[in-house]
Design a protein that fits this description.
Number of helices: 12
Number of strands: 6
Order of helices and strands: HHHHHHEHHEHHEEEEHH
Low-confidence stretches: none
Mean pLDDT: 90
Distance between the termini: 69 Å
Oligomer: single chain
Helix content: 40-55%
Strand order of the largest sheet: 3-2-1-4-5-6
CATH class of the largest domain: Alpha Beta
């Protein structure tokens, strides 16, 4: 092939993306012009992405998934794009989100802050901006983090919706993230969440003390085939686990947490009282 540039997928995440586009294209026997017509972008842009002269957009990644039949699979170009552009996210989290978007049931526990699935955009921006102030992420990464969260929430607005069970440590609703205005709106969002037919919300009160089985974020997924997986985080990384010997004890501990936490009615009353005190 004339003027064919050799690619080094190990050079950078962008190079790996471009090399994968070329491999997928050639596996189908398509030229860059062929792929251009199917994706609705110029052949020059295809060439630029393959050789890293141009950066792929999210729209480009989604179009590639459609053309190559990767929609609703785990290993999508969209997922690869997000991993490339969300370096501020913990290792393992983008992969977890891919499964979460298809889960039949989601169980979550969080301490200290409202979990991402239940955050308002304003609350999420305060947390992202605090990361910028600490020098952990750039302003662009902060904006991408909020956009990623909003898209993650939108992906759960499907028919039928997943069942979502949320248990929040009392510290989540009492930690005044962003000040009174942001918190009042965020608490209203929690009350709205609890009122939905496919959700359940409970507060694990401070009084539970050492009886709480978790001290930081835990997500448990039940997929449509009834298989289970867990996602937990340390301060520096996330860990996705599909091995039953380690996942089942977390499921058991979560059920115990639900039993000992305040009921949904009690939890909503607690949140409403706190919100009235802020307004």
């Amino acid at each position: 092939m004339v003027n064919r540039k050799e690619l080094n997928p190990d050079a950078s995440p962008q190079a790996a993306f471009g090399a994968r586009i070329r491999r997928s294209r050639e596996a189908h026997g398509w030229t860059q012009d062929d792929l251009s017509k199917r994706m609705g972008v110029s052949s020059g842009h295809i060439s630029g992405v393959e050789t890293t002269r141009k950066s792929p957009s999210l729209r480009f990644a989604k179009a590639a998934d459609v053309v190559f039949g990767l929609m609703a699979t785990v290993d999508t170009f969209e997922r690869q794009w997000r991993e490339m552009h969300n370096g501020s996210l913990l290792e393992g989290y983008p992969e977890y989100v891919g499964y979460q978007s298809r889960a039949a049931e989601i169980r979550l526990f969080e301490s200290g802050v409202i979990p991402g699935l239940l955050q308002t955009p304003e609350y999420a921006r305060v947390l992202a901006d605090s990361g910028v102030q600490r020098g952990e992420i750039t302003p662009d990464q902060a904006a991408e983090r909020v956009d990623f969260l909003i898209e993650q929430q939108a992906a759960l607005n499907r028919t039928p919706p997943p069942l979502i069970f949320a248990v929040l440590d009392e510290s989540c609703i009492r930690n005044p993230i962003g000040g009174p205005g942001v918190m009042a709106h965020q608490l209203a969002r929690l009350i709205e969440f609890a009122s939905q037919s496919s959700t359940a919300l409970q507060i694990a009160p401070f009084a539970m003390a050492e009886r709480k089985p978790f001290i930081r974020l835990v997500y448990l997924l039940t997929l449509s085939d009834r298989s289970l997986m867990s996602y937990v985080e340390s301060q520096t990384r996330g860990h996705l686990d599909r091995e039953m010997p380690s996942v089942l004890p977390l499921v058991k501990a979560y059920h115990q947490l639900q039993i000992e936490s305040a009921s949904q009615a009690e939890s909503v009353a607690m949140i409403e009282e706190l919100r009235r005190g802020i307004l």
